[in-house]
Every structure is written in structure tokens, then in C-alpha cells.
Batch of 2 targets.
Target 1
Amino acid sequence: MNIDLKTRKKQLLDRLRSQGITDEKVLEVMADIPREDFIADYLRPQAYENAALPIESEQTISQPYIVAYMTQELKVEKNHKVLEIGTGSGYQSIVLAKLCKRLFTIERHMPLHKGAEEMFKKFRLFNITTLFGNGIKGWKEQAPFDRIMVTAAGEDIPDDLLYQLKDGGIMIIPVGGQDETQHIVRVTRHGDEFDVKTLLPVKFVPLLSGIVHSS
Ligand code: SAH
């Protein structure tokens, strides 16, 4: 990494700390992952700006603060089985995979699904299982999960995902339409009851049904 990116990465991590990211494990894994490798070459100078950036298939890699915040709120532990909906670039997947036991991640765009698989190989992450499919339905064969993270905004919280959470499990999901204010929501399962807490206002790409074979 050139000296400039190294300095910017350090500044970004300091900024995340000052913005209330206190979980050192989350900061440590983010310090470890080269975000510049998950974006196009022309965007490299912007890799450590606290901003979402475009990736293939008209999607985005989330803003570093949002990655840190959602991961911190998910309270991932080393023995957890985690489901992620919206693999995208694979950046958030690697953050999660470094904190949990096994990560299952679903993407509906084939080029992104393939690209992320390459990244998981490159970074030698062997505890990630990928699926090309519609994550709104979750992953029945692998359920239940200790934690679920959705990285695209749904108009509602999908029922299938709620019921694939373990008792006591937590899901973090942005909720809201594209023309309204979306919020990150934290759902905690207590038996058949779901405790829903609204957290930060955010702007995410939509959670959509169906699959897309090409870019
Ligand atoms: N976590 C990603 C963010 C990608 S943006 C990253 O770090 O890069 C959100 C992603 O969710 C997009 O790639 C989009 O294609 C995907 N997505 C949207 N709806 C989906 C669905 N129903 N199932 C699986 N993936 C979905």
C-alpha cells in the first residue's frame, strides 16, 4: 500500500473511533482489510474516504462508518453462524467472516457473486459459503443463524429472515423505500416475539427479488 493510502486509512479509523465506533475487534479487522482492492482502479485514491463507492452491477460498497456501525450493532461472537444478504464486493463479508465461525452470504447479481468468490480465495477466507440467489428467502437449509445482516434496504423486514434467526439472535437490516428515509433496524428474537429497535437514518440500494445473470 502506498504511504498516502496508509495515512488515509489511519485517519479514517481515527474518525470512526471519534464517531462512536468503540469495538476494537471491529476496528482491528477493518484495519486489516485493504478496501482499495474491492473497488475499481480509478477509485483507489478514494478508498479511505468515509463514503459509499460504486461497484459492478450498479451497486455500492457501503460507507466505512456504516460497515463499522452495523457490524458493531450485530454483536458477532467467535462461535457464531452468520447469514449476510447482499454479498456485493465481498468487503463486509470478510469483516464478518473474520469475527465469526462461519459466514453464509447470498448475492442476486452473478458478476458480483463471482467477483466476491475470487476475493474470498485471494484473502484465504475458508469459512465463507456463497450462494447466487434471492436472499429475501434466507437460506433454509443452513438456518437457524445466530446473526443476520442485510446490506440492502427492504420496504419491510422479510418474514423468512425473522424465522431463520435463533432464539436470542440478532438481525441488522436497513428498512425503507428508495424515496423515503431509510433506517437501520435491529431485530432481536425472543421466542416468537421480535423486539424491533430503529437506529440510524441511512441510504441503501434496494433489496430486490429475483436473480440477475449478467451485469
Ligand atoms: N455488503 C456489500 C454491499 C453491497 S450493496 C459490500 O460490502 O460491498 C447491496 C447488495 O445487495 C448488492 O450487491 C445487491 O445486488 C444485493 N442484493 C439486493 N437484493 C438482494 C437479494 N434479494 N438477495 C441477495 N442480494 C441482494
Target 2
Amino acid sequence: MSSCQQNIINATSQPHDAAQVKIYHTVLWYWKLSFNFMILTLLLHSCQHDTQPVVGESAPGPSDYYAEPHRPQFHFSPEKMWMNDPNGLVFFEGEYHLFYQYYPDSTVWGPMHWGHAVSTDLVHWQHLPIALYPDSLGYIFSGSAVVDWQNTSGFGKNVQPPLVAIFTYHNTVWEKAGRADFQTQGIAYSNDKGRTWFKYEGNPVIPNPGLRDFRDPKVSWHEGLKEWIMVLSMGSHAGIYHSLDLKKWALASEFGKTEGAHGGVWECPDLFELKILGSDEKKWVMLASINPGGPNGGSATQYFIGDFNGKTFANDNPPDTALWLDYGRDNYAGVTWSDIPADERCRLFIGWMSNWEYAQSTPTQAWRSAMTLPRQLILRNTARGLRLTSMPADELLALRQVTFAADLRELNGEVDLTKDLQFPPAQMEVLLEVELIGDEKPDFGIELYNHKGESYKIGFNALANHYYSDRTLAGKAGFSGNFAAQVHTAPRIDGSRSFYLQFFFDKASAELFADWGATVMTETFFPTEDFDQVKLYAKHGKISIKKAEFYGLASIWK
Ligand code: FRU
């Protein structure tokens, strides 16, 4: 179970001077050491037992399993065929469930099913059979799942709480007939830890009120109200419903008609309460993915911070404020896990690592698209006010295999580190701590490249005060006119002269968590051959490097 602990330690004790940095890192180092030791012990322990092999962990298999070009090694991707949004994220009896929009017959979008995988550590995933198939009411679009602890639905059996999935039915027959009411909400339940599902005979539980876009229900239990609340998309804003039994629902309010970004339809909203880091105060957060209209074009996820009185959500910020969870082009439709045992400081999140602008034409063969890394969402006071920050989930520390710490004090120009790394840079994590010097306005970052002359850069431009991801020369791009047309940028929220940057590269993707996750960028790219070389660079000025650590990361599929 994720405790959110390490990143809480990180974020509460952000170092402000050198001495603090040292103490902080010593503590962190011990923490990591004991964490790694714990993981090793667990692994050794599990080897001694006749445990059922988890696909991707120790299952014997052909060596070309998950080895196709561009196949992510430590991100979730389906074995084959098309995947989009994460669905039904719920934790139950030691398992994280990841359902997802899935079309088993093609590598492009089609009649939607819910694919299914489980994990006991949030890192290694076991593929399970398809959980929900389309039926006479329609395709199974996005939605959520909850543990009905008090059996409010009556679906429980033998005193065991049922898992209940709440999803959208998309009726293509009605759609083709020109009706506007083709999206409705349905439910299904499971009494065997999500392995088999029964659709409720009273479906749909929410008929369509006359909206072409009426979908993606995200349900949670409201402890204060002792009621279920649901947030869902109603076109270009969100609706909030409530229910006592998950079967009868009533509209409580609508939010967002005039708030936030409206470049496209709102999809896959989420609504949850979080403690502000370092205080006892709590706030409510609403996520709302929009497509198109993201800060760098296409699909992206915005969020709102405010109050929720059980019926209405009130935004703390002026209506025209648009806050983005991730400025990269490849994090969409992400939502959070339900029923994580109480840790009010963070929510676990995962997104779809693609963008509707080109998702269906990316150059992979057997399967299409992957999820982002699992992340911890933390509410934090920043130089620009309260922000929802994202950090990689603590569990990912278990993937670190080989370490290289570059002894670079100052950098002016570039340094090639390929020969120093004992592992492929296409599958690594990098921690960079950098300080700006005097009036220097450098452009610094990491460049991955290969002998084909393709390269990918991700870094910070001090003159413009923004982070950037440059995939303009990173390989295959012809599959979409706009895929590699521009450098993508993200404003820096933090105002300090010190930078704490965490990067993850996984064959065809980069994730940057900058300034303790205050600015995040997730981007995909498709080099014709893996990037096997790496440079650190600082142009137009020098930087002071406090730390440059590189970690070779294990594959979760071998
Ligand atoms: C978001 C989305 C959802 C919908 C699903 C269909 O990517 O468009 O709104 O439920 O995908 O697959």
C-alpha cells in the first residue's frame, strides 16, 4: 500500500540551504536504502514460495515478450491492441485494480470494453481477462469503481463488500439514429475481487437528460454526507450527482460552465478532498480533462481547487484561471484510485500517456499506447499559491538497479555521459539538483540521442523562465502533422534559484517532475532506434550542479 510517505518527507522538508540539503539527503539516502532492502527482502521471500507468477515479474516467457520497438519497459501497456483511458481505479484486498478502455480487435479505437490488470505493488502488473463487454445498451465507456463497504447496493454476498463499477453506456444504434440521448450511466458488480462482473438488471441507472456528451462517472463515498457522490462530464462542464445506494441518483449541481478552460469537451472528471501539505486544512480538488484545448494543443487535464459542501463545488480561483496538471502533450483522462486506506495527504493518480490528436496513428505495431507512471497528487502552497503537484509514486524506487552519480560541479557547454552509464539511457531515471549562478540565464537539460542523428531534449530555459520538451528531431513524426511541429513549454511555478528535477525515460516517453512536481511534463517520442546516448548540457550560461544521479531502471515485464 502506498503511504505517500517519501514524497511527503521530500516536500515538507524542501532544502533551503546547503546544510539542510546534506541532512535531508542523508535522511533520504537511509530511507531509500532501507526501502530497497525491504523490497529485496520481499523479493527473496516471495522466491521461496510457490507463488503464482505475475506476468512481467518472474513469469517464464519468450525473450521477445514486451521487447517490440517503442515498447515501454516500466509503464503499463496492454499486451496487444488498442487502449485509452484508465478506468475503475480501486484498491481492494491488497490489489490495485487498473481497468482501461480497450478494443481487443484492433490497434485503433473501436467498440469499447474494460480491459483489466491488477498489481500488488503499483509497479508490476498482472494482465487479467476483459472485465466488461459491450451489450445491447452500448459500448462500455469510461468510469470508476468503488468498494461498497456497507453494502448500500445490496450486491454484497457472504458478508463480503462488493466491488461496484460505474460506467457510461454509449449506444451507437441510437447515435446513428440521430438521437442525442445515446450516453447513459450503468453499473456492474463483482463478488470475487473483480474477476467476474454482473451487470445490474436495472441499467441504465441514470438516463440521458438530452446531452450528446454525458459520460465518465467518477464515484466516491462522502463520509460527512453518508452518501455516494458522482462527478461526470456534461459537455463542456461537470455534473455532480448523489445517491444512497449506487442505483438511484439525483442531480445535485453543475460546475464549470464559465470556469477554467473550454477549448473542448470536458471528459473524465474526478472530485476528491486533500489535506494541504504541512497543515490540517483540507481542500477539494476537481480534475477535468479537456479535448482539445490543452496548453500545448490537443488533450490535457485541468484542475480546480475549492470547497465542496456535499452539493456544490465552489472554485477558489477567478473563473478564467486555468490550472494544468501536466503541460506535456501525453497525459490525458487521468483519475485517482478509490479506497486507498486512509492517507489524506495524497491521492494516487494514473493517466493515459497519449493525445487524441495522434493517438490512433502512433508507430507501434502489436499494441497502442501506455499509461503514465503512477503518481502521488499533493496539494502544496507554492510561490503562486495553492497548487496540485504530482510526484512519481514512492513504489517506483523499487525499480532502481544501477546508479551512477556524475561529479560535475559546474557546467558550461555539454558533457557526454554515455560511457559512464552501465545501462541504457532509454530506460532510466535522473535526479538533477541545479543552482543558477549570478545573472546567468542558461538553457540547461538532458539530451538523449542515437547514431541516426535523432535526439530528444528536455530542460529549462532561464531567459524564458519555462521548462520545455523538444521532440522536433526525435525520430518518426510523419504519422501526424502536429506531433513534432513545435517545442512544448511549461511555465515554472517555483521562483527559487535552486532546481530539484526528476526525469523518467522509458524507450518512447519522458516524464519531468520539476520543483517537487509543481510543473510536470509528460511526452512521447518514437526514435527509429532506441536513444542509446546521453548528454547533460548548459548553453548560454553556466549552472552549478549539486547533484546529477542516474539510475538504470528494471523492466517490469521481464
Ligand atoms: C476520453 C474519452 C471518454 C470516453 C472514452 C471513450 O479519452 O473520450 O470521454 O468515455 O474516451 O473511449
